[in-house]
Amino acid sequence: MLFVGINAVVGGGIFLLPGQAAAQAGAASVWAYLAAGIVVGLIGLCFAELSTMFDRTGGPILYARAALGRTAGFTVGWAVWLTYLVGLAALSDGFVSYLGSLWPAAKDGEVWIVPALIFVLCLLNTVGVRMGARVVQLFTIAKLVPLAVLVFAGLTFAGAVGNADLSLVPGGRGSFLGAVLIIVFAYGGFEGTAIPAGEMVNPRRAVVVAVLGTLAAVTTFYMLVQYAALRIEPNLASAGSPLASAGEAAFSGGLALLTVGALVSIFGTQSGVVLLAPRTLYSLAREGMLPEVLGRVHPRFKTPVVSIWVTGVLVAVLAVSGSVSSLILLNVAARLYQYLMVCISAGVLRLREPEAPRAFRLPFGPAIPAVAGMLCLFLLSRQPAVNLLATAGALAAGLLLYAAGSRRV
What we know:
By secondary structure, this protein is an all-alpha fold. The chain has one domain (2-404): Up-down Bundle (Amino acid/polyamine transporter I), CATH 1.20.1740. Helix content is 71%, strand content 0%. The protein contains 16 helices and no strands. The protein has helices spanning 2-9, 13-25, 29-51, 60-68, 70-102, 110-127, 129-138, 144-155, 176-183, 203-232, 242-250, 254-286, 305-321, 324-352, 367-381, 385-406. It is globular and about 60 Å long.
């Protein structure tokens, strides 16, 4: 479960965020990864406890529905889908940026490269879930190799002279909290490690290892990547493809290695998101929370074909019309809403059902969910107003669809 968690979290985000984090906080961006890891760790503990209270699939949708009601459960499910949708668009945009490092013409061809990429992924997942899963597995280990090479180079022979303490890194133009807010994007996926607790031999121990072990390992790895990249390339903040630029400065062939690694990692993460995102939409439709058409399956392949292609079209539109930074912040806003509702659900169920069986029980009663929820609220308050309004608008649109879908229940 520890390796499952690490694979779920380490994806395209680490190739997209180092430059933006450095632009916000400069050399302190290394520690921003630690702060983000602690915040997400507290939220992860809430997922861990809740996952041991239920023996059926549903994750955060199920938790919020049990604690706060059907409508709240829907809004969480819709927010989960929004994080997938906007995250996939950001990854698609980042894919083109890295591809442009090897093939400059790609930057001018985004309007057809992104739709073509999404089309291929949607087609693979329409043909069958097994095909989509195999694509994900293919890229599992490959994405870690170039990052490990970059860390080794940055810690040994490739650092800029006199930059061991990152003194050559320009100060950030934003804030430390701004960097933390952006970095939360790179931790998406950890919540999946807590879901199969009912299938573990010793869930009390295994869930702790899976959630906290994953976040500790990933946070350490992210900090090393950020430190190595800043030590090699002090002006990382101004690089369009940050780790590719660091690779180019590190050693001969580094640009190609890190660029290919980024493309492999981003495509692998995209494959996983295209596998999961439509099935969230499909599940909401099958539960009677969205219009029935979104729950239709392919007559031959038995895949949620309508949800797959609706998600794909929206991703393509978002990717070619937005930027990586704005899409990431929209993803974080929706993700923080999901996390906030899970923390509230953990606190509510602890107060309402204190004696309910929990294979993993948090210490200090509802204190940890309360602290984690307040951190989510604080980070949400640091979001630009336009992102909060966009997220609220997306939730309102979802509630309109929810009202339409609920009429048939």
